[in-house]
From TrEMBL:
Organism: Catharus ustulatus (Russet-backed thrush)
GO-annotated cellular components: membrane
Keywords: Membrane, Transmembrane, Transmembrane helix
Protein name: NIPA like domain containing 3
Transmembrane segments: 32-52, 73-93, 99-119, 131-150, 170-192, 199-227, 239-261, 273-292, 298-318
Any Pfam family matching the protein: Mg_trans_NIPA
């Protein structure tokens, strides 16, 4: 009886395995595993970053003298961030690069949902709908785009052995792609450093070009680690350490340019434009290095491109709806200064135009303004003494007119 039971169990398991291989081929199973790992990693990373942000805000709004790294919330966020990045790193070992990269839209969707759930203000239903309608539409489009990406993603799978990676590295399509990328990177870097062209597109193009090399090396390193775990050791090959060094170097320079962009532009613009440019550059790099779309029919390629466009639009709508911070506009009230005479006839204080930053009393166009709003001229004169020893004020108020 026991032998018959074991025999039936083995036959049942074999039939189930054959059924799964017929319904879900091996490459689809690997694509699904990689996509789920990437989605899980981006979701956990988004939660981790919001936890760390919550820790900073909570400390800033309280009288707690502790540093942020001494709180349990911040450390919980850090551990979740490491777990999420490990999930994303592992996903590159299973699925093609062109499938994993666009799934970073999940982190944008998760951040938008977390921001709406944990919002502190109380909104009326109409205000809430009007304010967050773009976020809801963007989340829906991003989910639809993600579904199309997973469904119609490329199905190219090969073992990431040192021999295969070396063969891809010296192939003429990738060498031509690298030549074009190096020339474009040098030109962009020249305009950025020498011509002071601090445009957001130029900075994020530099980030995207570096990021395309980062994901290529990440997939090579992750794939070789997986093959080594399966029994064929690849970690003793020089190409593994070359890819590892390139991965670390490009990631560091990529973070440097991102930090410079964050000092000049809003995070919403960086998120949307950076996602579009980085995804496009990474897919191009994966198509030339790993030949992700080799043997794919036109329908699958078109549906995959449609999924990317829908995900791009969704991320753009989500980031467009973010509330932009209003910078502090300082001003000087001339009549509030002790000992200062009033420089206008009707006692109006000199204050800046709110449309321009740090414009102390200077108007954009004096010709189209009334005369009382034109700034007075205050020349500096030497202090003089009157005949009876009475000191004269060290300034003289001159009448200002348009004829002058």
């Amino acid at each position: 009886m026991i032998q018959e039971w074991f025999l039936k169990s083995a036959l049942l398991q074999s039939s189930l395995t054959k059924f799964n291989n017929c319904v879900f081929p091996l490459f689809l199973q690997e694509n699904l595993i990689g996509a789920l790992l990437a989605i899980f990693g981006h979701l956990v990373s988004s939660i981790a970053l919001n936890l760390q942000k919550y820790s900073h805000i909570r400390l800033a709004g309280s009288k707690d003298p502790r540093a942020y790294f001494r709180t349990k919330t911040w450390w919980s966020g850090l551990l979740l961030l490491v777990l999420g990045e490990l999930g994303v790193f592992s996903s590159y070992a299973f699925a093609p690069l062109s499938l994993i990269v666009p799934l970073s839209a999940v982190s944008v969707v998760a951040s938008a949902i977390i921001g709406i759930i944990f919002i502190k203000e109380k909104w009326k239903p109409k205000e809430f709908l009007r304010r967050y309608v773009l976020s809801f539409v963007g989340c829906g489009l991003a989910v639809v785009g993600t579904y199309l990406l997973v469904t119609f993603g490329p199905n190219s799978h090969e073992k990431m052995t040192a021999e295969n990676i070396t063969r891809h590295l010296v192939s003429w399509p990738f060498l031509l792609y690298m030549l074009v990328e190096i020339i474009a990177f040098c030109l962009l870097l020249y305009f950025y450093k020498e011509r002071n062209a601090n445009y957001i597109v130029i900075i994020l193009l530099l980030v995207a070009l570096l990021g395309s090399m980062t994901v290529v090396t990440v997939k090579a390193v992750a794939g070789m680690v997986l093959v080594s775990i399966q029994g064929s050791l690849q970690l003793d090959s020089p190409i593994f350490y070359i890819m590892l060094v390139c991965m670390i170097a490009t990631a560091i320079y990529q973070a440097t340019f991102l930090a410079q962009a964050s000092q000049l532009y809003d995070s919403a613009q960086i998120s949307s434009i950076g996602y579009i440019l980085s995804t496009t550059a990474a897919i191009s790099a994966g198509a030339t290095f790993y030949l992700d779309f080799m043997g794919e029919d036109v329908l699958h390629i078109c549906m995959f491109a449609l999924g990317c466009l829908i995900a791009f639009l969704g991320v753009f709508l989500i980031t467009r709806n973010r509330k932009k911070p209003v910078p502090f506009e300082p001003y000087i009230s001339m009549d509030a200064m002790p000992g200062m005479q009033n420089v206008h006839d009707k006692g109006i204080a000199v204050q800046p135009d709110l449309k321009a930053s740090f414009s102390y009393g200077a108007l954009e166009n004096n010709d189209s303004m009334p005369e009382i709003y034109t700034p007075a001229t205050l020349p500096i004169v030497q202090e003089q003494h009157g005949p009876r020893g009475v000191s004269v004020p060290p300034y003289r108020v001159l009448e200002h007119s348009k004829k002058e």
